[in-house]
Design a protein that fits this description.
Blueprint: H1 2-13, H2 20-24, H3 28-48, H4 52-60, H5 70-89, H6 93-106, H7 156-159, H8 161-179, H9 183-196, H10 205-221, H11 230-243, H12 248-264, E1 280-281, E2 290-293, E3 297-301, H13 305-327, E4 338-343, H14 346-353, E5 361-368, E6 371-380, H15 386-400, H16 411-420, H17 424-431, H18 434-439, H19 446-450, H20 461-479, H21 481-494, H22 496-503, H23 509-520, H24 530-534
Parallel strand pairs: 3-4, 4-6
Antiparallel strand pairs: 1-2, 2-3, 5-6
Helix pairs in contact: 1-10, 1-12, 3-4, 3-5, 4-5, 5-6, 8-9, 9-10, 10-11, 10-12, 11-12, 13-15, 15-16, 16-20, 17-20, 20-21, 21-22
Length: 535
């Protein structure tokens, strides 16, 4: 019944196919004019709601097409003005300076409204809770803080042309795929365009959202392999609804179907019953921290009970689903529990852990052979992706710890699996960079990647993550996640080439490299099931 219901939802949504002729028509002038008018209307609507950031993104997206329109530039000036004010109120002075320079290009007199500011003083550091165990040596490499590169005088009329050209070509190709009802390919192209220039997809929300809902329904209609990734599907549906408000009714129907599937087929615990997340709120600990416990996590926090219970639910659900998906069983209750520390802000997190504030979080484990002596996750609550991406990612690291005998999890496996726990748009941010890395000759050979003992040089971190995610998705998609884990275990014992021959039929690294490149760069046929099984 659920399958038929989902198909009915999809068929009803197919009425949106009427959108295709508007976007795929070859009349470039008409299309450009409509896109400019749509961006102007969207920018004004966002400003009326007080959302100046969204207004800036929408208006900048069509700068190359406005042909000097004074009306359009006046709207962009007002959007910049409001956004700079917002950024300054949020003490984001570096970001504010970028948009102030753009504002001054349009209105030099605005300098009188935004005089230079001094740096604000930082709040006092909170005390690390005495109840917490001593923090072990960090087992995870820290991603260096991103380098912000400004282009010349940051003139918006020259800054965006290069990347807009590439993004616009991708959007036009996506629109053609959409018109041809090839929705999965259209979704991939919309995603690539958005990565090249977030503004390029401002007028494509309904079609991109429809493609996302189509993909979710397709995945739900397929027999699950290794357990469906319900959190990822729910996240995709919500993002689709944010892109296309007109599709909210369809999105809510799909969310209800997911909830029904989840209730009917919850991941069983050791006794065979679905695990219930019970949260016990304990007395206030030393140094003002509050403590809450679940079966597998001890949470240190200074947050509301409602938020902590949401964190607990995500942590326990991720633990159960990822263990079932990759290991084939949930296993026994963790002893010791995993300490989950919720720092209020990135600055608090950095001061307490000595990890840069640019890191969204990290996990640390102490092992004695194959036995886990301690588990800990540190996160900061001001990260907008905490519940949807960061916590599932770090929890997955903890799930894998101690599951490969007396040796640590290979880095490429650890990060590849953990990233695949995140929403699909986060995964794509790594994968879309692969062609650039190949063009720049930065790729590892798969022999090098799989035999790395630790993280590579910081300059190669981006390549490492992109290749690790792609390779894990490729191998796990070909034969299933649990077969992939068995392959890794045997590869660690007897060598990866022997394990490749046994589990995948590849004779050596060279043959694996050939097939992986076909998958990663769409060179020739892709092995059946690779993309579908893990999305």
């Amino acid at each position: 019944m659920a399958k038929e219901g989902l198909r009915a939802i999809l068929c009803a949504g197919a009425l949106l196919g009427a959108l295709c002729p508007l976007s795929a028509a070859g009349e470039d002038t008409v299309a450009g004019t409509l896109a400019v008018q749509a961006a102007l209307r969207q920018g004004r609507e966002q400003m009326a709601r007080g959302n100046y950031q969204a207004a800036v993104y929408a208006l900048e997206g069509q700068l190359s097409r406005i042909n000097g329109s004074r009306e359009y530039l006046a709207a962009l000036r007002d959007a910049y003005r409001g956004y700079v004010k917002e950024l300054r109120q949020a003490n984001q002075e570096a970001e504010a300076q970028i948009y102030l320079r753009r504002l001054l290009t349009l209105d030099p007199g605005a300098i009188l409204d935004f005089p230079p500011r001094g740096a604000s003083s930082e709040p006092k550091s909170p005390v690390t809770p005495a109840a917490l165990p001593a923090r072990p040596a960090v087992g995870e490499a820290v991603t260096p803080a991103p380098t912000v590169r400004l282009q010349g005088d940051d003139n918006p009329f020259s800054e965006f042309h290069a990347r807009q050209s590439k993004a616009q070509a991708l959007v036009e190709q996506a629109e053609r795929e959409f018109a041809g009802r090839r929705y999965e390919e259209a979704a991939r192209l919309f995603e690539q365009a958005h990565q090249a220039d977030p503004n390029s997809t401002a007028a494509c929300g309904e079609r991109w959202g429809y493609c996302k809902l189509y993909q979710v329904v397709q995945q739900l209609n397929q027999p699950p392999r290794g357990g469906p990734a319900y959190p990822e599907l729910e996240q995709e549906v919500r993002r689709a609804m944010s892109l296309a408000p007109r599709l909210e009714g369809f999105g809510q129907d799909i969310l209800r179907k997911i909830a029904e599937r989840r209730a009917a087929g919850s991941v069983p615990g050791p006794g065979g019953a679905a695990p219930a997340v019970t949260v016990r709120h304990l007395e206030r600990a030393a140094d003002g921290w509050q403590v809450a416990e679940t079966a597998n996590f001890r949470i240190y926090h200074n947050q509301s009970r409602d938020f902590v219970e949401r964190v607990a639910a995500v942590a326990e659900r991720t633990r159960a689903e990822m263990a079932q998906k990759w290991l084939g069983e949930v296993g026994e209750t963790w002893n010791p529990r995993c300490d989950l520390v919720l720092h209020a802000t990135a600055q608090d997190y950095s001061r307490a852990t000595h990890v840069p504030a640019s890191s969204p979080g990290h996990s640390t484990m102490q092992l004695d052979g194959g036995r886990v002596l301690s588990r800990r996750i540190d996160l900061h609550c001001d990260d907008p992706n905490l519940l949807t991406a960061v916590l599932p990612h770090e929890t997955t690291h903890v799930v894998l710890a101690g599951k490969f005998g007396d040796r640590p999890v290979p880095r490429w496996v650890d990060e590849g699996v953990a990233v695949l726990t995140e929403p699909r748009d986060k995964v794509e941010r790594h994968l879309v960079k692969l062609p650039q890395y190949r063009q720049e000759r930065q790729l590892f050979s798969l022999r090098q990647l799989m035999q790395l003992n630790d993280y590579p040089d910081p300059r190669q971190i981006g390549v490492f993550y992109a290749q690790s995610v792609s390779l894990v998705e490729f191998l796990a998609g070909a034969k299933g996640p649990q077969t992939f884990i068995r392959f890794v275990r045997e590869g660690m014992r007897t060598g990866y080439e022997a394990a490749l021959k046994r589990y995948y039929g590849y004779q050596d690294f060279n043959e694996l490299e050939q097939h992986w490149r076909q998958h990663a760069f769409k060179e020739g046929a892709v092995p059946t099931g690779v993309a579908e099984r893990l999305r």
